[in-house]
Specification:
Elements lengths: L1 H6 L10 H10 L4 E5 L7 H11 L4 E6 L4 H10 L3 E4 L4 H57 L1 H20 L4 H13 L9 H4 L7 H8 L1 H9 L6 H8 L21 H7 L1
Parallel strand pairs: 1-2, 2-3
Bound molecules: fe (ii) ion.
Length: 265
Amino acid sequence: VSGRLSDEGHECTVASDGTSALRQLNAHQFDLALLDIRMPGKSGTDILREIQVKYPDTAVIMVTAVLDVETAIESINMGAYDYIIKPVDLNMLAVSVDRALDKRRLILENREYQLHLEEKVEAQTQKIRNSFLNSITSLAYALEAKDKYTSGHSQRVTETAVAIARELGMSEESIEKIRLAGLVHDVGKIGLRESVLKKPGRLTDQEYRHVMSHCEIGERILSPVMEDEEILRMVRHHHERYDGTGYPDGLSGEDIPEGARILAV
Ligand SMILES: [Fe+2]
């Protein structure tokens, strides 16, 4: 048996009984064990049981006399890959060994795959999140390029809003939303005419109405990348006033989203 399997390219170790087999299994890692059911000392079934517990990655094929076929079938139920009836047909043996090794490889690969799947999903999620944050940062940069004043302003609004949200004991998730909304709440100013945006002194009524439109423009600019309705609402409503005199919708009191009320401070 050993000679034939060696010819097939397998590296074989022979053990004279169960105890010696276990000693060898303990010393080296084996892909596969061929176990005679009847051995001096511990039986093949005993060894199978121990292999299943201590070396579950070792495939087992039982070798049995015709009389022991029932025990062999029992061994399959216990987790052996196959059984071969004595006298051993070496061709059958080679086929059975190859099949068992293939099956073992698939099982190990599948386990490895399952193990890494979760990590991969996690890494992918992180990538998507980073790409989202990058697109938000990119929008903030775009506004900064148009209006220098706003960059420091957005940063300060964000810091203050986050501090207020913390003080109010809001959840980390809500605080994160407020932080994102703070960074881009004025992004709609990208859509304002520079002559109005940078006009020194008082604005005419018409110019003021133009400035007011930055809330709705901001909501629109962000809507393709921002799936979170709450954040979009914070951006839209950050100029509402508690007494209802704000814009764009003249909301009052608690009709104004809490995040928008915090940003307004
Ligand atoms: Fe604003």
